[in-house]
Amino acid sequence: MLLRWFKQHGRHDLPWRQTDNPYHIYVSEIMLQQTQVERVLQKYEPFLQKFPTLQSLRMASDEELLAQWSGLGYYRRALAMKKVAELVDTLPKNIQELQKLPGIGKYTAHAIASFAFNQSVPVVDVNIERVLRRFFALTGSQKEIWQKASEFLDKTSPKEHNLALMDLGSLVCVQNPKCENCPLQKSCKGQNEPQTYWSKGKREHERLDLHYALFIKDKKIALTYSKGSMYKGMLLLPEAKKKEKLLGTFKHNYTKYAITVYCYAEEVEGDFIWMDLAKARNAHLPTLVKKALKFYDDFSKFF
Ligand code: SF4
């Protein structure tokens, strides 16, 4: 029933479903972590045109790589892919070997093994977890879900089975499930109280305040490479220390964060990248920096 439903209703048109190239599938899986499918659809093919192989990824500068990744957020994912490209020429088939590589956790290793190498292994992402919790009426740990996924796996068509569960979770067994359209309805133990087994609402954005210094000298702006995990490797404004001359604030959502940015006119000292202001407006800088540049006109009032 499940595979028949998948044949008819599955998302077969997704470009990463039309390849068994392990590197391409790996790229799609990394992009899809914490990023909506629609956004990944815009970035996946241009990324592969620019970096069609692990070897080409290895040769890329961080700047080129991050420019190509721009819009997907969580830049450390891209940097981890480059590290993988520096370590291996081809992706290993073995799940344990895959999990030794930077940025590849249990889910990604299993997804590559299943979708690229057609191995008979379970895959559990958030959509599959929701289906399994409801179908088997499970309230236990992730370990229990993986165990159940392994027992439930259709060993004759493991890849299609995993993809079918994934699509069922994203199209039918959604937050408010459409059980009347579900191929598993007859045997589903949780259909009468689906929220008991999966009630995670939309994830709230975490609130975060960031304080940046805007300092412009000779029409050049001071920038610095981010060392934190957020925006890692990208150019940002320097952190404000004195926080005395507030230019303004703005809201900015980035991945799981609802950020309030406080922008100060503040002289900075130390090693900075000085970028021509006109160039900065067109450069591949995080949107948050571009938004801060709008305070440029007010800056001269303070200096
Ligand atoms: S019957 Fe309803 S609750 Fe059960 S798996 Fe299908 S959509 Fe989810």
Automatic annotation (TrEMBL):
The entry's keywords: DNA damage, DNA repair, Glycosidase, Hydrolase, Iron, Iron-sulfur, Metal-binding
GO molecular function list: 8-oxo-7,8-dihydroguanine DNA N-glycosylase activity; adenine/guanine mispair binding; iron-sulfur cluster binding; metal ion binding; oxidized purine DNA binding; purine-specific mismatch base pair DNA N-glycosylase activity
Keyword GTP-binding in annotation: no
A single GO BP: mismatch repair
HhH-GPD domain segment(s): 31-171
Cofactor(s) for this UniProt protein: [4Fe-4S] cluster
Entry's EC annotation: 3.2.2.31
Entry keyword Iron-sulfur: yes
Chemical reaction(s) catalysed: Hydrolyzes free adenine bases from 7,8-dihydro-8-oxoguanine:adenine mismatched double-stranded DNA, leaving an apurinic site
Pfam families found in the cross-reference section: HHH, HhH-GPD
Origin superkingdom: Bacteria
Function: Adenine glycosylase active on G-A mispairs. MutY also corrects error-prone DNA synthesis past GO lesions which are due to the oxidatively damaged form of guanine: 7,8-dihydro-8-oxoguanine (8-oxo-dGTP).
Record family assignment: Belongs to the Nth/MutY family.
PANTHER family according to UniProt: ADENINE DNA GLYCOSYLASE
Protein name: Adenine DNA glycosylase
Organism: Nitratiruptor tergarcus DSM 16512
